[in-house]
Amino acid sequence: MAPLPRNNAFGAGSPSWNLSFPSGNMTAAEILAYLPHWLKSVDIIDRFVTNGGASRTIAAMINEFRHQPTGPDAVFLPNSAQIMMSYAMRRAGYDEWTVGTHGNWDRESENDPEDLSVTNFRPQRLTHPKKVSNKNPKDILRNKEADPIPFKDLAHHVKQHPSGPDALDLTRCVRYALAYPHEQLFFPTDFERLVNELGGPQTPTHSHLDRQVFARRSDCQFPSPVKSTTRKLNRTSQGKKTPLSKVMSLARGGTTADPATPGTVTPSKHALDVADQTQNGNKRRSGRLVGKVFNMREGSDDPDATDKDNWDSPYSTHASSIKKRKVSRVPPTPGSPANDSDFVLHEASESEDEVAEAEAVMDDVANSPIPARGRIAARKARQKIHTLATTPRVPTPVNPKSHFKTATEPSAEMMHEARQFAYRQPIFLKPPILSENRLKVDASSIWLYAADGCTTFEELWASALSSTRFGGPRRHAPFRELHRLTDPHPHDVSDWAENIRWAKEQYKCFGSVTWTEYDYHLECIKEHRRAVMWVSENVIRFGM
Which of 53, 277, 495, 505 is deepest in the core (most CB within 10 A)? Predict the structure, then answer.
């Protein structure tokens, strides 16, 4: 048997991706629950993605049905499913393939959304075998067909068996093998025989289809990835510290290896600090400030004084400004007293240098002093108010609406189709298969789905089967059969109305009763109508 790698994503003992596919039907839930490595098969990927399988829903189903090998709280993420499928498709020749671009690629055959058979599917060893060396026997085994495995081994790492519409023939076989472990039953060689012994293949219903299986997990949620914020402590680097590390070391008052370093707390330094505190009225200040007399009301005499002199003071609660801006370059507002309002209408002009300086200050608003920024903002506000007050308002011209629509001449092709409408023949489209156990609007449940206030059975049925009650199709079960709905308004030529008319014609001519207002059915009908250029009589009568 081909050996599995150590980095098995689904746990040790999981079935190999090189197991051959049997003849029979399998749901998407059964494949992901019992044979998740088949997700590396290009045929499985094509089937899943074509029928609405996304990385999120596939990952959600793997978490639902299987234990993760890395621990009970581990989660199989959508990114892992995307990487696994992308790697397989790109190895098979679909360069730069993604789930979103799957429909853009030419495939060998179109996938039938109602076909659950895996009879002709190919494993990885046939479509994109691993590159191996002929000299290494173990590498050669990686592209060999995997030996059949006991049916009961398919249950390894399975957290929950598929049930209900998720289960089909494979689930019955696995449960039987677990109930009778003494019987020698192997997968895939005994699959067809065991299915026949258990009563024969089950008939797939509408709920078994892949699109329905994935739709039931469309609201899955995954935990947001949390970035680790663990700080590395006790780093003993012998190299030169960066300026930031020096600043942080000094700010914390930490010690260094050099006794002369200013951040070092030595007995002599501590004695000098105590002396400074005693000589200056029990107020501790740094050595460069001792003996100086400060007048906080006077401005600086130094014309090159910067904001850093005040804002980097040890008594300031503001962070140091990285960009230094000279105070003398911010001119006071001309002709205004010191205590005037910031928004007094005043004519002021600025030179180009002042405007450039103001724009430069706006780039670093968080680091600029509040008084300087306030003066610039006030000056800009006064200019804006003055401009708005002196600019005359011009009413916006209103384009008169035309009272008549311009008539267009119908094309020759349109006229030909209109003339042929009376002679057209309905085209049959195979209806979908629906489960008999689905939710229905019938005599026993009509009270639940009719609108409030109905007093007679005629009103109940008219309300429950109204085509206009919800402004379109229902968005949740029960999905009503289209041929039973009330006729749309004659002037309504929307896709919703045309789908109803088309379904009524199919019912009248061919007896089709399973076309419902489910969104997938509506999309199929719309594509068919457009492909055969089907239109109702209402569209012809009221103009195409």
Answer: 53
Higher-confidence residue of 21 and 255: namely: 21
CA atoms within 13 A on the CB side of 124: 23
Rounded to whole angstroms, how far apart are CA atoms 346 and 383? Answer: 8
Q: Could you tell me if 264 and 258 are in contact, meaning their C-beta atoms sit under 8 angstroms apart?
A: yes
Q: What is the DSSP letter of 514?
A: -
pLDDT in tens, 318-345: 444 444 444 444 444 444 444 444 444 4
Is position 32 within any domain? yes
Tokens representing 383 are: 């200019």
Distance CA 61, CA 54 (A): 11
In a domain, 223, yes or no: no
Count of structural domains within the chain: 2
- pLDDT higher at 189 or 311: 189
* Amino acid present at 473: P
Name the H helices within 71-117: 78-91
Q: What is the pLDDT at residue 437?
A: 82
In this predicted model, what pLDDT tens digit does every residue of 455-486 receive, in sequence order? Answer: 888 888 999 999 998 889 988 888 999 999 99
Among the listed residues 178, 181, 176, 210, the one whose alpha carbon sits nearest the alpha carbon of residue 193: 176
Q: Which domain holds residue 134?
A: 28-216
Q: What is the mean pLDDT of residues 72-92?
A: 87
**Which tens digit of pLDDT belongs to each residue from 21-58?**
999 999 999 999 999 999 988 899 999 999 999 999 99
User: Token pair for residue 407?
Assistant: 């008539």
What are the backbone dihedrals phi and psi of residue 149, each rounded to the nearest 5 degrees, phi first? -120, 155
Beta strands in 139-265 (DSSP E): 149-150, 186-187
Q: What is the pTM of this model?
A: 0.44
List Cα–Cα distances, 298 to 294, 302, 335, 339, in angstroms.
9, 12, 22, 17
Which of 195, 216, 237 terminates a domain? The answer is: 216
**pLDDT of 360 above 50:** no
Q: Which residues pair with 25 in a beta bridge?
A: 117
Among residues 182, 216, 250, which one ends one of the domains?
216
d(CA 47, CA 113): 8
Answer whether residue 274 is part of any domain: no
Half-sphere exposure in the Cβ direction for 297 (13 Å, CA): 0
